TrEMBL record:
Domain of life: Bacteria
Cofactor mode of binding and number, as noted: Binds 2 magnesium ions per subunit.
EC numbers on record: 3.1.3.11
Pfam family, one: FBPase_C
Name the UniProt record assigns to this protein: Fructose-1,6-bisphosphatase class 1
Keyword Hydrolase: yes
Annotated organism of origin: Halodesulfovibrio aestuarii
Xref: NCBIfam families: PRK09293.1-1, PRK09293.1-3
Length: 336
């Protein structure tokens, strides 16, 4: 296959920002450099003192893994200096970060989950970095505000993820389809390996943590039973796959079809809207899902149409093959 680099592909496929190709390319260049740094460390994490927890609890109420903190530091340091951002928001930081006075700023906002699936990192299971790119709404000469960050998913100009697995991949969209790149470590370049990814309309796999069954409401139980029974287009139960890293479970669905679900938990007030964060997990992946012909809802409403009110707002997530997400919506509509 002819080698196509990310930079070349970006210049060919930019629809959202035709006027700012240089800025966008600079942003992706630094994001890729940060991801390559994280990937290199990840590949030998067992030999470094970088596994396990830091002992801190983050704003999410989660045990911070050393690699969460490491990936977060690498991304913030690199992206503060990319010259085209006015703000950064991370799953690991309680507040958003304004680009320091002495560094060059721009119009874009970068939101990321620096390490998704970090509970898996000590057992060497796929993890990833999820990112979302917005353009500021307030005038450039004003201070960037939280309102600039709290935007609906439809406002995204790009989104994607890095997947640290048997190979390191970059999957992204700038509004012109979804494209996958694989890192060739021998040359240090991400090269096009999965052009124009499309999610199969009908899946054969469902992905949910069934350990929480007793915390689900009737609609959620009925939705999960739909995939475990015969009353579905397959006429038989779907296969169950749950890696525990959203980015890996999503990637499987992007390529092979199926549905990933993280429902609301009707017993635990802290998870009344599920566990996943809107801005750095649900919104970017919903953008990719729709760009690849799939769907993403919180049960009945499109994820991309929701308006976040808080930086770390959580949202239930049903994402993947169009038919499967629509089947869940039909069940939820019956109960609402
Ligand atoms: P993160 O590691 O960024 O906090 O995200 C973890 C998320 C997601 O990656 C995964 O699908 C889900 O949490 C697993 O949650 P449960 O362990 O509750 O199933
Ligand atoms: Mn976390
Ligand atoms: Mn995550
Ligand atoms: Mn994370």
């Amino acid at each position: 296959m002819r080698q196509v680099t990310v930079t070349e592909h970006l210049l060919l496929h930019q629809t959202q920002t035709p006027d700012a190709s240089g800025k966008f390319t600079a942003l992706f260049y630094d994001l890729i450099l940060a991801a390559k740094t994280i990937s290199k460390t990840m590949n030998k994490a067992g030999l470094l003192d970088i596994l396990g927890a830091t002992g801190e609890i983050n704003v999410q109420g989660e045990q911070v893994q050393k690699l969460d903190a490491y990936a977060n530091r690498v991304l913030i340091h690199r992206m503060e200096r990319t010259g085209v951002l006015c703000a950064i928001a991370s799953e690991e930081n309680a507040d958003f970060i304004r680009i320091p006075e002495q560094l060059q700023k721009g119009e874009y906002i970068l939101i990321f989950d620096p390490l998704d699936g970090s509970s898996n990192v000590d057992v060497n299971v796929n993890v990833g970095t999820i990112f979302s790119i917005l353009r500021r709404k307030s005038p450039s000469n004003n201070d960037v505000t939280l309102g600039d960050i709290l935007q609906s998913g439809v406002e995204q100009v790009a989104a994607g993820y890095f997947l640290y697995g048997p190979s390191t991949m970059l999957v992204y969209s700038t509004g012109d389809g979804v494209h996958g790149f694989t890192l060739d470590p021998s040359v240090g370049e991400f090269l096009l390996s999965h052009p124009d990814l499309r999610i199969p309309e009908q899946g054969k796999v469902y992905s949910v943590n069934e350990g929480y069954y007793k915390y689900w409401d009737d609609a959620t139980r009925e939705a999960v039973e739909y995939f475990k029974g015969d009353e579905n287009p397959l006429g038989k139960p779907y296969s169950a796959r749950y890696i525990g890293s959203l980015v890996a479970d999503f990637h499987r669905g992007l390529l092979n079809g199926g549905i990933y679900m993280y429902p609301a938990d009707c017993r635990n007030p802290g998870k009344a809207k599920g566990k996943l964060r809107y801005l750095c997990e649900a919104s970017p992946l919903a953008y990719l899902a729709e760009q690849a012909g799939g769907a993403a809802t919180e049960g009945t409403t499109r994820i991309l149409e929701l308006q976040p009110e808080e930086l770390h707002e959580r949202v239930p997530l049903f994402i993947g093959s169009k038919n499967d997400v629509e089947a869940v919506a039909t069940i939820y509509k019956k109960h609402r």
